[in-house]
């Protein structure tokens, strides 16, 4: 397996030394302790850089200069040698949040201390000392000073124990993982340092931690879990960048600090965005102020991992370069560029471990993902370095998405293996998205709602605007377009919102403080765009309340967009066998793509279900008019429940294609549909959603879609056979049983925020209303199985209500 960190040979390393110097013979000069331990040591290897690191036999020494002591150093702990099933992410994932340390001398010892930036104050403010006293820095470890450099300019400590013992600050496993894997402790005898490398601004230590455990994620027979770690010690800038204030109306990753120097009558939190440091060159500042495009003092450069398959390199590089127009809007040309990593002959000092270089790492695991993390200065939010993690198997994820969302009208998606130019375009799309993260941009799930659904069927509109104003939305691919719509755009590009967000984060100003900058420029920039949906930001949340800020939705009408999407799924199912066929292969791809259809249908149910009890959120400040939170209109909620009744609770027979099912399973169709229906039912009757419906009625009266409306509309749809007298098919029988069980579960809620509301009364009343119709319908049924089913339901309801008395 290719690890994220690729180590180059010693001959290529910066300031590499491998000296074997013998002590002088017949000299009267006394040999110092430093010379005995370091200079004349056999088998010594030395790396010079941020720290000078000496390896002598199996011992490692840090040589810490006076100017390093008390200096704040960033520590980034990553897993470099990954174990299957250990966690999500593979090699290159952070094992701990980035941290700050300082080396401090106390008598004959060096202390390693942890520094926090959760609470801060201006050094010149009297309250600064109080902040220091009330945020005392913990001592992580102490080290004996083995010797000093002959001129007393540096102290030498042996550091093996830092990397071979169980140190929580830089460890591989959290307590939850230790419990899950039955870890009993770290085995020091099988934990060791692999090697050390040092560069001008960082020192890298590679080491192995071996744990004893009983329920290990892989190789369980060994009883051992060995994880290779990489610790990066990174120098923070001597001249900190002026931070830029975070604004919740614009999407940026951010850092939080309680700043006791602020002129507020409380302990106030201040947030800064994370961003690269882009500044005009001094000789270009006048041109910049005239509005001319200028190059920054330092480009943002992403190097493509040499391990990347050659045919994908141009597409990944283009995904980086696609951001150049956004930076031009902020005043910079050639601000960001993708480059092929230099060969050893071109630049013998280049290494992916050198913090001066950001690298798009190509990782050979079966993980279907890509990630764009970054390392930043915790004082200011300045991004110092970023390594995008590009997993080889992301191509399978792209194949599945592109197929299930566009194959109904897009011939290029009708295969299990796409042409290179098709896959390359998808890779470029993902690369641009991940680069956006490394520029400081989070997901913007409130973007795609800006476009009318039917506009997504227009070639003219989508070719100009893409499918969403932001590539940072999870807009994925155009599942709205229908056969015959023509050459519509298939995916979002870097859009209007993305350009604006780069302007907000990166356009320089003449302000001398973050507060002045926000008051003088940033707030006005935001307000100028506040009423335009193209510039809206909606954060990603696990359980969204706002139906216009969801993952993987498209357009301004979730019901209409989902109806178009389902029509496309209905077109795909009969063609699955033909479009997944490959001579000599089994039906594994057919099974996988059929599962993708089920998953896509579930997404549509989630998109529409969020409308019920939904609340629109449009972030505002005091100087903007209107509400921040507004309940979704009653009409839209009624349409949403009607959609669920029609598209899912009425059995989706189109999924039951025997030609497909007979090739991928012996059984399971009923269970698959049951799970889909029950999961949607459970989301619909989730407690907090029901509470929002009650509150909306209390606040808005008849204008609101009420709790009673939801219970009545779903009961009427799910038990429609009670009035029609139609036979109840097996899928509906499962659903009706699940509905009654759900009512029982609601009646048994214990938490006060549910127990002391109308939820139980509505559930009980719904079951009581079903008693007589169930009995009457059973007697009228011509279908014997349906008759028994309805009789059974009546007994279940009676039992629940009887037990409740």
Shape annotation: globular
Number of strands: 25
Structural class: alpha+beta
Most strands sheet: 13 strands, antiparallel
Indicate the mean pLDDT: 89
Query: What percentage of residues falls in helices of 4 or more residues?
Result: 25-40%
Low-confidence stretches: 1-17
Radius of gyration: 31 Å
β-strand amount:
15-25%
How widely separated are the two ends? 63 Å
- Oligomeric form of this entry? single chain
Number of helices: 25
Short characterization:
The chain has 805 residues and is an alpha+beta fold. Helices cover 36% and strands 17% of the residues. Helix 8 packs across helix 15 (588-609), helix 18 (669-684) packs parallel to helix 22 (730-747) and helix 22 packs parallel to helix 25.
What would you say this structure looks like, in words?
- With 805 residues, the protein is an alpha+beta fold.
- Helix content is 36%, strand content 17%.
- The chain contains 25 helices and 25 strands.
- The strands form 5 sheets. Strands 1, 2, 3, 4, 5, 6, 7, 9, 10, 11, 12, 13 and 14 form a 13-stranded antiparallel β-sheet that branches.
- A hairpin with an 8-residue loop joins β15 (254-259) and β16 (268-273).
- The radius of gyration is 31 Å and the shape is globular.
- It starts with 15 loop residues before the first strand and ends with a helix.
- Mean pLDDT is 89; it is low at 1-17.
């Amino acid at each position: 397996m290719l690890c994220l960190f690729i180590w180059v040979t010693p001959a290529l390393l910066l300031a590499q030394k491998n000296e074997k110097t013998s002590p002088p013979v017949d000299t009267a000069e006394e040999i110092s302790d430093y010379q005995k331990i370091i200079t004349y040591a056999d088998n010594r290897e030395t790396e010079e850089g941020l720290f000078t690191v000496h390896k002598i036999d199996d011992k490692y020494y840090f040589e810490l200069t006076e100017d390093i002591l008390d200096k704040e150093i960033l520590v980034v702990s990553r897993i470099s040698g990954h174990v299957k099933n250990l966690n999500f992410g593979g090699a290159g994932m952070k094992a701990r949040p980035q941290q700050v340390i300082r080396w401090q001398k106390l008598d004959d010892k060096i202390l390693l201390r942890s520094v926090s930036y959760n609470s801060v104050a201006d050094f010149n403010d009297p309250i600064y000392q109080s902040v220091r006293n009330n945020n005392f820095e913990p001592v992580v470890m102490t080290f004996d000073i083995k010797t000093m450099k002959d001129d007393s300019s540096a102290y030498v400590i042996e550091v093996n124990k830092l990397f071979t013992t169980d140190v929580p600050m830089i460890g591989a496993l959290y307590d939850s993982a230790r419990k899950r894997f039955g870890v009993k402790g770290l085995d020091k005898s099988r934990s060791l340092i692999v090697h050390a490398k040092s560069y001008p601004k960082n020192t890298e230590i590679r080491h192995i931690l071996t744990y004893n455990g009983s329920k290990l994620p892989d190789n369980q027979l060994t009883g051992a879990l060995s994880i290779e770690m990489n610790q990066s010690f990174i120098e923070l800038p001597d001249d900190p960048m002026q931070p830029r204030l975070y604004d919740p109306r614009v999407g940026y990753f951010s850092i939080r600090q309680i700043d006791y120097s602020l002129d507020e009558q409380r302990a106030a939190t201040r947030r800064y965005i994370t961003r690269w440091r882009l500044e005009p060159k001094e000789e270009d500042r006048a041109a910049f102020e005239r509005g001319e495009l200028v190059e920054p003092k330092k480009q943002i450069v992403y190097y493509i991992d040499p391990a990347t398959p050659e045919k994908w390199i141009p597409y990944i590089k283009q995904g980086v370069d696609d951001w150049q127009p956004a930076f031009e809007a902020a005043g910079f040309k050639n601000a960001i560029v993708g480059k092929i990593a230099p060969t050893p002959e071109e630049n013998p000092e280049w290494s992916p471990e050198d913090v001066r270089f950001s690298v798009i790492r190509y990782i050979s695991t079966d993980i279907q993902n890509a990630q764009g993390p970054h390392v930043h200065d915790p004082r200011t939010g300045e991004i110092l370095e970023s390594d995008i993690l590009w997993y080889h198997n992301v191509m399978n994820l792209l194949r599945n998405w592109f197929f299930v969302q566009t194959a109904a009208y897009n011939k290029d998606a009708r295969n299990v293996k796409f042409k290179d130019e098709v896959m390359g375009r998808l890779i470029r799309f993902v690369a641009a998205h991940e680069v956006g993260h490394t520029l400081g941009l989070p997901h913007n799930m409130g973007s795609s709602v800006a476009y009318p659904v039917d506009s997504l069927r227009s070639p003219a509109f989508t070719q100009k605007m893409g499918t969403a104003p932001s590539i940072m939305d999870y807009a994925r691919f155009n599942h709205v377009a229908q056969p015959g719509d023509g050459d519509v755009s298939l995916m979002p590009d870097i859009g209007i919102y993305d350009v604006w967000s780069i302007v907000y984060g990166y356009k320089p100003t003449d302000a001398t403080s973050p507060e002045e900058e926000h008051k003088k420029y940033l707030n006005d920039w935001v307000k100028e765009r506040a009423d335009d949906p193209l510039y809206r930001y909606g954060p990603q949340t696990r359980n969204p309340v706002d139906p216009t800020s969801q993952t993987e939705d498209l357009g301004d009408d979730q019901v209409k967009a989902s109806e178009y999407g389902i029509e496309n799924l209905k077109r795909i199912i009969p063609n699955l066998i033909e479009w997944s066929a490959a001579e000599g292969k089994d039906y594994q791809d057919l099974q996988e793509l059929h599962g993708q259809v089920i998953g896509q249908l579930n997404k549509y149910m989630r998109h529409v279900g969020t409308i019920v009890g939904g609340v629109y959120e449009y972030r505002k400040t005091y100087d903007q008019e209107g509400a921040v939170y507004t309940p979704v209109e009653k009409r839209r909620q009624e349409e949403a429940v009607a959609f669920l009744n029609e598209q899912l609770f009425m059995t989706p027979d189109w999924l039951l294609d025997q030609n497909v099912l007979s090739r991928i399973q012996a059984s399971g169709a009923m269970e698959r549909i049951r799970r889909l229906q029950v999961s949607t039912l459970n989301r619909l009757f989730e407690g907090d959603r029901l509470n929002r419906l009650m509150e909306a009625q209390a606040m808005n009266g008849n204008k609101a879609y009420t709790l009673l409306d939801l219970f009545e509309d779903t009961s009427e749809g799910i038990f429609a056979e009670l009035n029609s007298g139609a036979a109840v098919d097996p899928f509906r029988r499962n659903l009706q049983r699940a509905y009654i069980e759900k009512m029982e579960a609601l009646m048994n809620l214990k938490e006060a925020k549910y127990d002391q509301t109308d939820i139980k009364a509505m559930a009980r009343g719904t079951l009581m209303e079903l008693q007589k119709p169930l009995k009457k319908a059973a007697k009228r049924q011509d279908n014997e199985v349906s008759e028994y089913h309805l009789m059974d339901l009546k007994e279940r309801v009676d039992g629940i209500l009887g037990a409740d008395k």
